[in-house]
Design brief:
globular, Diaminopimelate Epimerase, Chain A, domain 1, inorganic pyrophosphatase (n-terminal core), 5-stranded parallel β-sheet, alpha/beta, 16 helices, single chain, 525 residues, OB fold (Dihydrolipoamide Acetyltransferase, E2P), 5-stranded mixed β-sheet, 16 strands
Length: 525
């Protein structure tokens, strides 16, 4: 299909305007969550009795934002809580015996955010010690649930919340909304939408229904946010407003870098900063860590490419010396490149740990459920997961994944990576504005990509800190040229091209006050 601006507008608007929850006014009530009233009443009781409450988060963006929301909410209540984000190198993932041992001895209530649904052992320890455990999570529940006082998770079978696919920070936000109601307080929950939108986008939630409504409004709030961390971020980027890609490719990697290489509390402290001096200090530490992450990621990715067996339906690569904090990003890049579910694994002591990514067309959690006999533990959701297994189980696990892949529902024959064909002459700011209207993009509301045919190439250049990206200077018309960027691909692979077909979307380039359009290439055909 050859597209024009009118056709594109109609396609994009039809996606989201028919959703049931496409504005903040239509958001479903907190009371629809199973156990949320029970959880709220227990927290209110703890506050009344001045009992110790602890919040346990996670080291990724969703977990960090979840924790920040809880900390800020209790700050508004002027009630001190203990909060912990596990260090992946010291504590591992989520609520564990190590984390419980680090709590204040007289802790009576533990609230998990963005984790806990698989914490069977830790829940038993809490029960034995007389700690009431409240789990708020969004990951797929196992068949046997933890022994907790209350579990707030939209994916529970008997939960009546009408939309399952929300992130951990949204579940935490809803618990705070329920607490606000229980305490009969006037707190504007929309004040949290600026950072909540970061978690929704970073955790790659389907960008439909309430996710779209909350993220869209949150992005608008970021530009006028009173949060000094976000003001410093905007200043550093020289931006007055942000879109979903700014969060996904700029801010989220910064926030994730601390948990990958150092201490996730750096990111939490950044978001919670009370003055611009502290925010600036934490931000530039995150920039340093993110630069280290990029170098390490490139090294691991290049090593992993040599190990890929393209004949397999599921890619599994392993090296005992890889940094486990980088595995998820490398899995994502390999998944994008080969269009297959990808597992990137390393060794920690006497076991193998790793991360998995899928494009969303293959349900990773279901694949792992079918392959669980060769695993020690696993958790996650449709698009992302984590696994652990014994060293001697590696080959069995690889075989099980590839055998069980055939048991999954087949891919749709209609799958396309682009909306339609577009002439290079059609690319202008009017087209860009149409695309921007329906931000933020994500799963189920994919950013529009277009097929460009027979594009004439004038020049091929290497760009980027490590020359890891390619810039094509292409002919737009007789007297005009245009830039097309191909991220993560080295120029020497394409230096002999005179023309090509490629799939790309529009991008915006801001440099020294000058704004121009370019193309971001997804795939060269």
């Amino acid at each position: 299909m050859v597209l024009n601006k009118e056709k594109l507008y109609r396609i994009l608007s039809n996606r989201v305007l028919s959703d049931s929850y496409n504005s903040l006014k239509t958001l479903p009530s907190p009371t629809l969550f199973k156990d949320i009233e029970k959880a709220s009443k227990r927290v209110v009781e703890a506050i009344a009795k001045k009992e110790k409450i602890a919040v346990v988060g996670d080291y990724d963006v969703d977990g960090i934002v979840s924790t920040a929301i809880m900390v800020e909410f209790f700050d508004i209540l002027k009630y001190d809580i203990q909060y912990i984000i596990p260090n992946r190198f010291e504590h591992g993932y989520g609520l564990s015996s190590k984390i419980i041992d680090s709590l204040d001895k007289d802790t009576k209530v533990v609230i998990t955010v963005d984790n806990g649904i698989s914490a069977i052992e830790a829940a038993n320890i809490c029960y034995e010690r007389g700690i009431d455990l409240i789990i708020t999570d969004h990951h797929t529940p196992p068949e046997i649930l933890p022994k907790a006082y209350a579990i707030v998770n939209p994916k529970q079978l008997d939960c009546t919340f009408p939309y399952q696919h929300i992130c951990g920070a949204q579940v935490a936000w809803y618990l705070c909304a329920s607490l606000k109601s229980e305490l009969k307080l006037e707190i504007n929950m929309a004040d949290f939408l600026d950072i909540l939108s970061i978690a929704i986008i970073a955790d790659i939630m389907p960008m439909r229904e309430l996710n779209f409504a909350m993220a869209k409004r949150g992005l608008e709030y970021i530009s006028k946010s009173k949060r000094v961390a976000l003001q410093e971020f905007l200043t550093m980027c020289n931006k007055s407003k942000v879109n979903g890609e700014d969060i996904g490719f700029l801010l989220a990697p910064l926030l994730n870098s601390a948990g990958r290489l150092d201490d996730p509390l750096i990111s939490l402290n950044f978001l919670l900063s009370k003055n611009r001096f502290d925010a600036n200090k934490y931000l530039y530490r995150l920039v340093e860590l993110n630069n280290q992450r990029k170098e390490l990621q490139l090294s691991i990715y290049q090593d992993a490419l040599k190990m890929v067996n393209q004949d397999d339906n599921v890619i599994v690569v392993f090296d005992p010396d890889w940094n486990e904090g980088i595995l998820g990003i490398v899995a994502s890049k390999l998944c994008d490149k080969y269009k297959k579910p990808t597992f990137v694994l390393t060794q920690k002591e006497d076991s193998i740990k790793g991360s998995a990514r899928s494009s969303g067309l293959i349900d990773l959690y279901e694949l792992l459920r079918l392959s669980h006999n060769s695993l020690s533990n696993f958790g996650g959701h449709k698009s992302a997961a984590g696994v652990s297994l014994k060293v001697e189980q590696l080959e069995d696990f690889r075989k099980a994944l590839n055998e069980n892949f055939s048991k999954l529902p087949p891919l749709s024959e209609d799958r396309n990576d682009y909306l339609g064909e577009l002439e290079l002459e059609e690319v202008d700011f009017e087209l860009f504005d149409i695309i921007e209207q329906f931000e933020p993009y994500g799963l189920e509301n994919e950013k529009p990509y277009f097929l460009f045919k027979n594009v004439q190439i004038q020049k091929v250049l290497s760009i980027g800190r490590n020359k890891e990206h390619t810039k094509f200077v292409v002919t737009k018309n007789i007297s005009d040229t245009f830039e097309a960027l191909f991220f993560g691909e080295e120029a020497n692979n394409y230096c002999e091209l005179n023309s090509c077909n490629f799939i790309a979307t529009l991008g915006l380039n801001e440099f020294k006050g000058n704004i121009s359009l370019n193309l971001h290439i997804k795939e060269i055909l």
